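Complex record, two chains
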Amino acid sequence: QKEVEQDPGPLSVPEGAIVSLNCTYSNSAFQYFMWYRQYSRKGPELLMYTYSSGNKEDGRFTAQVDKSSKYISLFIRDSQPSDSATYLCAMNNYGQNFVFGPGTRLSVLP
Amino acid sequence: GAGVSQSPRYKVAKRGQDVALRCDPISGHVSLFWYQQALGQGPEFLTYFQNEAQLDKSGLPSDRFFAERPEGSVSTLKIQRTQQEDSAVYLCASSLAARGQVYRETQYFGPGTRLLVL
């Protein structure tokens, strides 16, 4: 079993839909949780950064962390075709290496 | 300012050849990381530099992999006697602070080098 699991998709939604992306993890020591977006043939770019449990909102994006369930989510409201990309969750403990999920491929259809 | 750049963007090698992949981090960034990303997978950590010191090489898959950052800026990842299983995208990332110096660590990624070993 991998340390971080993520549904690989692909996930296809119509433009304007609310998208829910999720990761589960096994290491209870993780405290810092990130979501990266990766367009085809590009490097990952940081979208959201959350410390410990709770919610964080930034524009159309909301990140949720539930440490008791070892479950994190990213919600995208009013999805756009430009949101079509692979979404990677990543997590670590202070000063430790990042561990990435395998990514979920999202397609937002116009 | 410029982001992280990597060269070459694509590399095709015959099995057994040596390859060298270059990373130019963001100027002034102390930390530099190399990752390997297989098709359909997330990046996997290879090695970490703080300035010119290689502090963590726990992710390097074999002794055929070697990385250096001699002057604390540009880094090179070298793979000797390439094998087909080395085919992947090699990502470089840099971060302003040293690992463990700040609570929020933001890594900036380059576009990657896509290596195909035939």
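Note: Chain A touches chain B at residues 4, 6, 8, 32, 36, 41-46, 49, 51, 88, 90, 92, 94-95, 97-103 (CB under 8 Å).
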